[in-house]
Amino acid sequence: MKILRHPSEVFPPIAFARREGASVGLVPTMGALHAGHYALVRQSASQCDKTVATIFVNPTQFAAGEDLARYPRTLEEDLEGLAAAGADFVFVPKDSDLYPSGFSTFVEPPSVSLPLEGAFRPGHYRGVATIVLKLFNLIPATSAFFGRKDYQQLLTIQKMVDDLNVPIRIEACDTVREADGLAMSSRNRYLSPEDRQRAVGIYRSLQRTLGEFNSGVRNVSDLEAVLMRSLHDCNIDQVDYAKVVDAETLEDRTKLEAPAIALVAARIGKTRLIDNWLLGTNGA
Amino acid sequence: MKILRHPSEVFPPIAFARREGASVGLVPTMGALHAGHYALVRQSASQCDKTVATIFVNPTQFAAGEDLARYPRTLEEDLEGLAAAGADFVFVPKDSDLYPSGFSTFVEPPSVSLPLEGAFRPGHYRGVATIVLKLFNLIPATSAFFGRKDYQQLLTIQKMVDDLNVPIRIEACDTVREADGLAMSSRNRYLSPEDRQRAVGIYRSLQRTLGEFNSGVRNVSDLEAVLMRSLHDCNIDQVDYAKVVDAETLEDRTKLEAPAIALVAARIGKTRLIDNWLLGTNGA
After folding, report:
1. pLDDT value at A282 more than 60
2. Do the Cβ atoms of A139 and A80 come closer than 8 Å?
3. Torsional sign, CA B190, B194, B195, B196
4. Which of A128, A149, A173 is at the close of a domain?
5. What residue of B is the nearest CA neighbor of A168?
6. Residue A217 burial by CB count (10 A; 0-12/13-18/19+): exposed, middle or buried?
């Protein structure tokens, strides 16, 4: 696995591989890698001739007061894991190389980015869309792999790619979970043992909501009431949102007809976690 | 010359040419072509193996109340002229193919887009940056050619390309002028014979400002006073701006040290024209 550190180093080998006819998969990450990230890399390696991972804690996607400074950095472990998962290249740029002095062009993300995380994390998806587009330009891949755990991010990136005619295919990968169901997240390592036990309540509440859906409930306020009550029963009281919305647009519905998704963002201690479950298709 | 009408038609032949090692030049236009556009096409054809022109009157770059509906459309003449100038492909998309229902991702253009035109035409450069990035993605060219007449547009696009790491080289081409000095513009055809005569006053006023600069004047308010007085002497009274600013950043200066540029936007009758002249380097 080759480690590339400067933007000027990364385009040529990928463009060369593309000219030779190779397919190239891209897996953008912020490091602090876990089994979910490695599943993305393995999926890319199985589908593409070459796989490029990136590790960059993107400052522009952290809203004021968020955990940018304390975001976990575990570079040595990450590099070992990426090599084992089958990455051919890893791009590890510096902040100042991607955001030099005077940087001032951003992507204004699509409307699907506005509710939910967009409402609770002002500027988050503007930062995500901007860095992802920059990486797509620096690394001319054929496909890019994103996890369904960050479901609104996935929709935002897919819509940006469609709107801006970016010549790349977005591949969605299922959420990887701990044995008890907690969605893998780099932020899980912030959790105290006690909070870790409590955190699984998000998963359990999504499952209870799925159970209601599967038993025929289609009224959104009933489903959201089950979700919220279950979070409360699991001692999760700092809930940013617990919503059931249209799975394609994230728009509010009264009664479910098309595929829907239940999404939760909650604080467990000082750690903000998100998770989701699709209703009406195979959830992950 | 091959005419391509749908976005899905345009990427494959250009990507094929690139894989074969060809250089590809892109000349984005809004049609109503004149000698300035054809100079861009000829420059591309002389530098690149293949040249792609685009004709698209981009609705998102017209501010409310501007001349979108009456913007001149002269497709048959444009196609003849492009073929004669050496274009290999011309892309003529429909509005609904580039802006389908639900389109909602935009480029938030760099800070160099904020003063001057940015202040007088709200949203103009957001529309310009968005369509240009879309065209760069649809048409994977090696170079793109833009005229210095739209000087702030040129800086905006160059800075967007730098900030977003777009893998394309921006080539600036000199302004082409009528025999009397009036900068070529698609909007010149709006001018009545009388207004046409008056319009050359913009060029003459820029020349008078250059004369002052060449005689050693470096105080910006003195230069701007000469520019404004000259416009007034030429019966051009509806001036949006008549400014001398830093040529790289478009920022205000008190006294000129680095290269500067004089820029004018004025209304002649109902027609809004812009022009500029570099001070301290070879003007065009």
Report:
1. no
2. no
3. positive
4. A173
5. B137
6. middle
Same domain, yes or no: B41 and B160: yes
Query: Scanning the structure block, which residue is given the tokens 């080289």?
Result: B169
pLDDT at position B48 over 70: yes
Complex ipTM: 0.97
Query: Is the minimum CB–CB distance between B28 and chain A shorter than 8 Å?
Result: no
Q: Is the pTM of this model over 0.90?
A: yes
- Which residue range is the domain that position A115 belongs to? 2-173
Inter-chain touch B105–A104, beta carbons under 8 Å: no
> Which H/E stretch holds residue A244?
strand A238-246
Q: Are B30 and B53 in contact (CB under 8 A)?
A: no
Distance of CA B80 to the CA centre of its chain: 22
DSSP 8-state symbol, B111? G
| B8: CB partners within 8 A, 6+ apart | none
Does A130 reach chain B within 8 Å, measured CB to CB? Answer: yes
Domain count, chain B: 2
CB-based contact (8 Å) between B215 and chain A? Answer: no
* Separation of alpha carbons A145 and B235, rounded Å: 61
Cβ-Cβ contacts under 8 Å between A and B: the total is: 78
CATH code for the domain of A232: 3.30.1300.10
Residues A78-135: tens digit of each pLDDT: 999 999 999 999 999 999 999 999 999 999 999 999 999 999 999 999 999 999 999 9
CA distance B284 to B275: 10
Q: Is B106 on the interface with A (CB under 8 A)?
A: yes
Please say which residue of B173, B198, B225 terminates a domain: B173
Measured between beta carbons, which residues in chain A are less than 8 angstroms from residue B18?
19
